[in-house]
């Protein structure tokens, strides 16, 4: 019966997609379009496979540069080969930074499967015995054209729906024959719709579609296992690793349309093999006429125009998978996501954000924001100075003093952005923070998700953070009502859960001295209260909270990841000491600011 309901919902969804297609005016070359989109649909449903792109691995890349790097001038400096990728970078491709979201492009040896385990990646071609390791699933990137029209993208989602329906039928038949598998841990038995194969099919389809669909999948990948079913978490890990890449012909079309056919005259060289492929665009390394090494972020065609339809289709799939719990106010989250993604697709706005951050942090030790190259940038292409460093998750391998320093700088930056600048880069992706060991500087990249916060909101939020740090229940409730987290009509159960969650978040700021982020699992503690708050909450959080809490949780998770010990309370009180509130009479007592 449950399987029948799953299929009914799915086919209803497909009918909605079909209705949407019927409303659209059909293009002139309809026969060609139908042929191409049907191929895309079968590809997305898993019936056909795309072209596997053979990417060089880090140790091969320098030697293979001539195959992907195109030179546009006869005058090549003697150091040009090093300019494309210096020897220091060939040792570790992760040290090459770029103005993009998360995705490093992995090596892709020719194999049958599109998804492999980490052990297969490491041991490919080796004849030595190794100890078995937990299966970390990785994805081999493929070269596929981006579905660029609303019609082709809608049909792609329809193909995905057909694939999910087929997967549900297979899983249902399997369970009829062999019984329902026992749930793991404290999770309940999952719907056949949420089978491992279907979860993988969903993840791979998002990687192929790219755009807003993949972006939302990457946002969902930062979740606690108690909130999201295990198969979906495993699939989202595949999503987090990155997207497929545009073929050279489509890439040239975008560059010619955005920069004009003479764009190459401004460069010495351009590497057609991307150093990253993320949700909205892919990143290529190039060298300017003045020998400056740059990163060119090139947006996938059609993604900016398909944000609304993509998100509605993702919402449809999320509803059918029951992935989103009741009480999350999905419609409000979707509205905010559309606004944020629209801003991220405007590279002219991102360039302005990056320049603004560069000015704000000019006199701040420990941070560097790369230059924007306006001469070869547009609304869909962003060119910036190439900076180098190791991503935050790799910092965990460094000594404790260095990790403490980086954790302190990350928290200092987060507090400064919100309470001093009132202008924050809200993407917590670890790849956006690159540590240069030689200069002890954190290079900051990717400012598409930057936004301003109203003065009154910032004032009340600072008061609430201090109340959480000091265990002040009345202060937490009062500020939460003023900010819009509470209506004033909540039950005692909801108020208690809300206050306790605030105290958990305020724990790092509660005592003077260094706070060891490994001492308490903050995210797990919050998730235990999440079910109660979702059940009893009466209003969605204010719009500002979605991006802000994503960034704050990212900063905490980064400190947990690297095992940093940070004097959080001292950093907070220093900000509070110099903060100028709009209202002169403080709501919080003077006792609350004592160290």
Strand residues, percent: 5-15%
**β-strand number:** 18
Over the alpha carbons, how many angstroms does the gyration radius reach?
Answer: 25 Å
The main sheet comes to: 6 strands, antiparallel
Report the structural category: alpha+beta
| Morphology call | globular
Oligomer status: single chain
- What percent of residues adopt helix (DSSP H or I)? 40-55%
Q: Low-confidence parts, pLDDT < 50 over ≥5 residues?
A: 23-28, 44-65, 77-137, 221-227, 586-591
Give the distance, in angstroms, between the N- and C-terminal Cα atoms. Answer: 60 Å
Number of helices: 22
Calculate the mean pLDDT score and round it: 74
GO molecular function, one term: ATP binding
Organism: Psophocarpus tetragonolobus
InterPro entries: ABC1_dom, ADCK3_dom, Atypical_kinase_ADCK, Kinase-like_dom_sf
Pfam family, one: ABC1
Architecture blueprint of SSEs:
Blueprint: H1 2-23, H2 30-44, E1 51-52, H3 58-61, H4 65-68, E2 69-71, H5 80-84, H6 87-90, E3 115-117, H7 118-123, E4 137-139, E5 142-143, H8 150-178, H9 196-209, H10 212-220, H11 230-240, H12 248-259, E6 267-271, E7 276-277, E8 281-288, E9 293-299, H13 307-321, H14 330-344, H15 347-360, E10 367-368, E11 381-385, E12 390-391, H16 400-421, E13 423-425, E14 433-436, E15 441-444, E16 450-452, H17 455-469, H18 473-483, H19 492-506, E17 515-516, H20 522-536, H21 543-562, E18 565-566, H22 568-578
Parallel strand pairs: 10-15
Antiparallel strand pairs: 1-5, 2-6, 3-4, 6-8, 7-8, 8-9, 9-11, 12-14, 13-16, 14-15, 17-18
Helix pairs in contact: 1-8, 1-13, 2-8, 8-9, 8-13, 9-11, 10-11, 13-14, 16-21, 16-22, 17-18, 17-19, 19-20
Family: Belongs to the protein kinase superfamily. ADCK protein kinase family.
Domain ABC1 atypical kinase-like: 239-480
Keywords: ATP-binding, Nucleotide-binding, Transferase
């Amino acid at each position: 019966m449950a399987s029948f309901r799953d299929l009914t919902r799915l086919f209803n969804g497909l009918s909605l997609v079909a209705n949407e297609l019927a409303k659209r005016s059909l293009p002139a070359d309809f026969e060609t379009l139908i042929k191409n989109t049907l191929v895309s649909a079968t590809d997305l449903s898993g019936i056909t496979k795309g072209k596997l792109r053979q990417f060089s691995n880090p140790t091969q890349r320098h030697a293979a540069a001539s195959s992907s790097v195109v030179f546009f001038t006869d005058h090549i400096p003697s150091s040009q080969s090093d300019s494309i990728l210096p020897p220091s970078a060939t040792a570790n491709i992760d040290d090459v930074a770029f103005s993009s979201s998360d995705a490093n492009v992995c090596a892709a040896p020719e194999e049958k499967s599109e998804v492999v385990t980490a052990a297969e990646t490491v041991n490919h071609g080796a004849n030595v015995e190794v100890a078995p390791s937990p299966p970390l699933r990785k994805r081999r990137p493929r070269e596929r054209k981006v579905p660029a029209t609303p019609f082709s993208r809608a049909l792609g989602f329809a193909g995905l729906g057909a694939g999910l329906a087929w997967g549900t039928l297979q899983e249902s038949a399997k369970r009829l024959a062999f019984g329902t598998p026992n749930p793991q841990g404290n999770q309940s038995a999952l719907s056949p719709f949420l089978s491992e194969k279907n979860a993988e099919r969903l993840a791979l389809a998002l990687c192929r579609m790219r755009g807003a669909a993949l972006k939302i999948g990457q946002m969902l990948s930062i979740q606690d296992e108690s909130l999201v079913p295990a198969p979906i978490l495993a699939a989202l890990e595949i999503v987090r690793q990155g997207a497929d890449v545009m073929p050279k012909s489509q890439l040239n079309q975008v560059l010619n349309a955005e920069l004009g056919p003479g764009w190459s005259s401004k460069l010495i060289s351009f590497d057609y093999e991307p150093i990253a492929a993320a949700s909205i665009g892919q990143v290529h390394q190039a060298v300017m006429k003045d020998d400056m090494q740059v990163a060119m972020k090139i947006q996938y065609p059609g993604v900016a125009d398909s944000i609304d339809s993509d998100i509605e289709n993702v919402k449809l799939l999320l509803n059918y998978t029951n992935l989103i719990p009741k009480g999350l106010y999905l419609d409000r989250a979707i509205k905010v996501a559309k606004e944020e993604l629209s801003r991220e697709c405007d590279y002219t706005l991102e360039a302005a954000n990056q320049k603004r951050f560069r000015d704000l942090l000019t006199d701040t030790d420990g941070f560097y924001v790369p230059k924007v190259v306006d001469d070869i940038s547009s609304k869909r292409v962003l060119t910036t100075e190439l900076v180098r460093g190791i991503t935050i998750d790799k910092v965990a391998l460094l000594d404790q003093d260095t990790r403490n320093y980086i954790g302190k700088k990350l928290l200092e930056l987060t507090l400064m952005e919100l309470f001093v600048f009132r202008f924050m880069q809200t993407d917590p992706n670890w790849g956006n923070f690159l540590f240069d060991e030689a200069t002890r500087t954190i290079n900051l990249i990717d400012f598409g998700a930057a936004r301003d916060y109203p003065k009154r909101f910032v004032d009340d939020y600072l008061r609430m953070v201090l109340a959480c740090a000091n265990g002040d229940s009345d202060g937490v409730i009062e500020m939460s009502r003023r900010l819009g987290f509470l209506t004033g009509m909540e039950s005692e159960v909801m108020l208690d859960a809300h206050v306790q969650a605030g105290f958990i978040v305020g724990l790092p700021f509660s005592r003077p001295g260094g706070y060891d982020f490994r001492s308490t699992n903050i995210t797990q503690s919050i998730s235990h209260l999440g079910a109660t708050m979702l059940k009893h909450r009466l209003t969605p959080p204010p719009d500002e909270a979605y991006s802000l809490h994503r960034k704050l949780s990212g900063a905490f998770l980064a400190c947990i990841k690297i095992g940093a010990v940070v004097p959080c309370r001292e950093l907070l009180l220093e900000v509070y000491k110099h903060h100028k509130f709009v209202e002169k009479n403080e709501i919080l007592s003077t006792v609350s600011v004592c160290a």
